[in-house]
Q: What sequence folds into this?
């Protein structure tokens, strides 16, 4: 053990720069001859792009270049797990949420870029907007993506649910809904890109939580080798899951390639909220059984996670939620199914807790209702059902080390002077 | 539009001519009224800017020029006279919050000002801006109505005065005519024995638009008889709203003779709330009833002490 | 139009427009990028500066409203020789995480401690109520303000209460 460090408070390496205002976040970077980028977003959450008229915008003073899908027909889709998100929506293609990009404006100033956005004319053929995942799951619902609206199904089986239900003296079944939540890192998405014409390397100063995945995704979207993309991590400005996804990166790269000048793109807060990921709203149906003396015997869940227009981390987030369906409580008989479903909402992805958070609302509510109906103190109920060494999780992982939930409950009960002073 | 080369000193903002937006900085009210009279719809009167600039950024308004009232000294003054308190339209929320005179004479107003936005907002936002913006949730509006404030409007046709209770006609709508400016807020000096309470309910303690607010001002005559009582709510109707039925029921009685639940019911019945982001109509009816009961209990229990309360929720 | 203002003690003359925000004037024209933009609507406090000694959100001011004003930004806190006690306290209390709120927090702390050298926790919360920290490091930020008050009192700077 290093006695100079362990147990000591250390000043973070970049804290001095941060308290003096000298730390450089991506929007703080300036290069000579730098241009400013703004993105024309979808005008409808679900529609086919029929016409994109940029000539008026192109003629405005200060506008250097307007890039559309027609300029780069070879672009590939991007995405963290599934490459389902287009860099630019082309004519005849679908916009699937209000954050989809239709055109990239590059101008001498932010103001000029903003004025150009307002002059771009868009014509669309509107389709049914699916904002409810249950509608998306219906047989006759229009398809958001070619392989169907149910992006994936995950299942879980432990023990024998029917036996567990038969052993229960009380069975309750409830439905829970959680909200979409914005991570809201204080710095909105921002970045600068410089194209080095000698080496052909795109240098990007953009905050990301996945340096190498981001590099690989940008490269594959542009169809260039990863060594031609260099990500320089500036000071980040908060992330909380929201910076796992691609945001300004590929649009910046295209703007730099097209103009051969340094380019900067900073989202407004509104744009950040509309365009980038959220915590998944989930519909959770839970059926739980317990004996008269307060032991859980069976647990069944169905989870519908609204992943919005694109997959992002959705399959992993919803899957993780399923694994956490009983929380820290031991149940021998568990069955669950989770659906990750596309809708026309802003896409959902990673956020602190990564799917586990939503389930806590359901299982802790179930526990409270069971305890109340069985007239057992809820702290006692939790204590006697909590994991102990040797317990197994719904996905079969046997817990051996650091299983301290019972001790934690005990201490919490003591420290909070829990009324009734439960004997544990 | 006539461009104004502001000021006597050379370092005032100069309108360069290359700029499509004019910027006017009159140094007297007369000059301001004159400029406004000449201008079209596109000239926006700029007070603290804490609402107006957000509207600009959200492209809710078209701006051709600004009439900045920031250099007119008389609009920044608070004057306490024997009969009334005169508050210039450009007096900031921070001034109201910190003024010993306002805290002493109009504590419900001071308390409401102290809970607007944040220190940053209170340092810029003004009483005039709050009034003219006329949001149904504007925090100063219910207190002003409760204190029987009169608003002084100045236009090229002269000065007119209108009771605050008659000024608002809908969300962001007032009786003010194009070419008029709000110059001062005049409030009759409350007699001794005036007590009151301010309660604002919001989702946070700072930087929050009220889900519902209540300004209660009670004037007690000798023997504790209610000579006047004004229960004014914010965010419960298209305009800030006085529940006049409370005046009819409670006037002439003593506080301890009132059935507070019955008075609370008048509030629940008298408001016209909507469902919005900050709460449902049903929620607001329930809370209006409880707030009025709470405010009456506080006013009664403190026996004339003024209490201002930021409710937790 | 041209405006003249004093920024961190230095007089500056800037060619600007009637719709330029003070925030943009500072960040883009004067390259003082320590002042941050988090929301652009006066809700987050990342753009906080001192204008004639008052705490303001620089996103809610037009450049001409700052004509002849004296502005202090985070770059004007502390000196070449060393950090201000508030900056030191933020370092020592571990009150800096992503750092995006830090400049605004420090300016709000400075204003608070000028007016009230020995604030209670409740007064600190109120003084910083216009500044959001999305890393949610509020406890350490409050600890940093308390530490600042202590340091300033120790240095005899807090005697004017």
A:
């Amino acid at each position: 053990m290093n006695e100079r460090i362990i147990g000591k408070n250390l000043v973070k390496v970049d804290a001095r720069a941060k308290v003096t205002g000298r730390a450089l976040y991506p929007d703080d970077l300036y290069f000579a001859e730098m241009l400013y980028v703004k993105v024309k977003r979808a005008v409808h959450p679900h529609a086919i792009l029929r016409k994109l008229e940029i000539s008026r915008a192109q003629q405005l003073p200060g506008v250097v270049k307007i890039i559309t899908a027609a300029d780069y027909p070879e672009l590939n889709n991007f995405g963290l797990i599934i490459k389902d998100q287009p860099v630019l929506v082309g004519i005849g293609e679908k916009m699937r949420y209000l954050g989809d990009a239709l055109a990239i404006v590059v101008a001498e100033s932010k103001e000029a870029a903003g004025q150009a956005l307002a002059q771009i004319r868009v014509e669309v053929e509107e389709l049914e907007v699916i904002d409810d995942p249950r509608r998306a799951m219906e047989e006759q619902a229009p398809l958001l993506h070619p392989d169907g609206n149910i992006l994936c199904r995950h299942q879980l089986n432990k023990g024998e649910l029917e036996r567990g239900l038969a052993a229960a003296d009380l069975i309750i079944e409830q439905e829970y809904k959680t909200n979409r939540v914005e991570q809201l890192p204080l710095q909105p998405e921002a970045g600068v890109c410089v194209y080095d014409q000698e080496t052909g390397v795109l240098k990007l100063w953009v905050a990301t939580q996945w340096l190498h995945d981001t590099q690989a995704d940008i490269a594959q979207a542009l169809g260039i080798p990863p060594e031609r993309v260099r990500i320089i991590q500036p000071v980040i400005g908060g992330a909380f899951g929201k910076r796992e996804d691609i945001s300004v990166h590929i649009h910046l790269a295209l703007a730099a390639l097209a103009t051969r000048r340094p380019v900067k793109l900073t989202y407004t807060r509104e744009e950040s909220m509309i365009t980038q990921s959220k915590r998944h709203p989930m519909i959770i149906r839970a059926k739980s059984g317990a004996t008269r003396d307060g032991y859980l015997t069976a647990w069944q869940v169905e989870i519908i996670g609204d992943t919005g227009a694109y997959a992002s981390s959705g399959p992993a987030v919803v899957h993780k939620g399923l694994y956490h369906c009983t929380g820290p409580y031991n149940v021998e008989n568990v069955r669950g199914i989770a659906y990750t479903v596309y809708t026309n909402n802003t896409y959902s992805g990673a956020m602190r807790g990564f799917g586990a958070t939503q389930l806590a609302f359901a299982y802790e509510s179930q526990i409270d209702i069971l305890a109340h109906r069985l007239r057992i103190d809820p702290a006692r109920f939790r204590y006697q059902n909590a994991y102990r060494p040797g317990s197994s999780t719904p996905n079969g992982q046997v817990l051996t080390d650091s299983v301290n939930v019972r001790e934690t409950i005990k201490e919490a009960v003591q420290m909070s002077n829990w009324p009734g002073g439960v004997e544990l | 539009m006539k461009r104004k080369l502001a000021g006597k000193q050379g370092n005032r903002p100069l309108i360069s001519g290359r700029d499509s937006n004019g910027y006017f900085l009159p140094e007297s009210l007369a000059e301001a009224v004159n400029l406004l009279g000449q201008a079209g719809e596109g000239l926006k009167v700029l007070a603290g800017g804490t609402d107006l600039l957000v509207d600009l950024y959200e492209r809710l308004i078209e701006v051709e020029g600004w009439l900045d009232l920031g250099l007119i000294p008389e609009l920044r003054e608070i004057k306490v006279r024997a009969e009334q308190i005169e508050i210039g339209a450009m007096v900031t929320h921070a001034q109201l919050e910190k003024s010993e005179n306002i805290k002493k004479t109009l504590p419900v107003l001071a308390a409401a000002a102290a809970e607007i936005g944040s220190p940053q907002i209170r340092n810029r936002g003004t009483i005039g801006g709050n009034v003219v913006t006329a949001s149904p949730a504007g925090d100063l509006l219910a207190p002003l109505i409760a204190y029987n404030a009169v608003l002084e409007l100045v236009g090229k046709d002269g000065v007119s005065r209108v009771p605050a209770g008659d000024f608002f006609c809908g969300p962001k709508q007032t009786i003010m005519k194009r070419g008029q400016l709000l110059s001062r807020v005049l409030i009759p000096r409350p007699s001794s024995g005036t007590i009151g309470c301010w309660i604002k309910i919001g989702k946070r303690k700072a930087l929050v638009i009220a889900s519902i607010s209540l300004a209660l001002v009670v004037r007690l005559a000798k023997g504790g008889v209610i000579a006047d009582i004004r229960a004014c709510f914010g965010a419960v109707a298209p305009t800030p709203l006085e529940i006049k039925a409370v005046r009819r029921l409670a006037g002439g009685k003593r506080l301890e003779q009132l059935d507070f639940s019955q008075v609370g019911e008048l509030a629940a019945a008298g408001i016209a709330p909507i469902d919005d982001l900050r709460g449902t109509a049903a929620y607001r009816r329930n809370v209006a009833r409880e707030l009025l009961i709470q405010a009456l209990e506080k006013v009664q229990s403190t026996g004339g002490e003024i209490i201002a309360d930021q409710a937790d929720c | 139009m041209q405006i003249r203002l004093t920024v961190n003690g230095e007089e500056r003359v800037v060619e600007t427009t009637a719709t330029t925000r003070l925030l943009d004037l500072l960040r883009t024209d004067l390259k003082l990028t320590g002042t941050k933009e988090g929301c652009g609507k006066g809700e987050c406090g990342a753009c906080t500066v001192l204008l004639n000694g008052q705490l303001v959100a620089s996103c809610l001011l037009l450049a001409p409203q700052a004509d002849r004003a004296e502005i202090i930004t985070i770059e004007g806190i502390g000196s070449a020789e060393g950090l201000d006690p508030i900056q030191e306290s933020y370092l020592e209390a571990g009150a800096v995480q992503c750092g995006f709120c830090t400049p605004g927090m420090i300016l709000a702390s400075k204003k608070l401690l000028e007016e009230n050298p020995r604030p209670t926790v409740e007064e600190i919360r109120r003084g910083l109520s216009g500044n959001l920290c999305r890393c949610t490091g509020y406890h350490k930020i409050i600890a940093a303000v308390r530490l600042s008050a202590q340091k300033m009192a120790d240095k005899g700077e807090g005697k004017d209460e």
Chain B touches chain C through 34 residues (CB under 8 Å). The two ends of chain B are 50 Å apart (CA to CA).
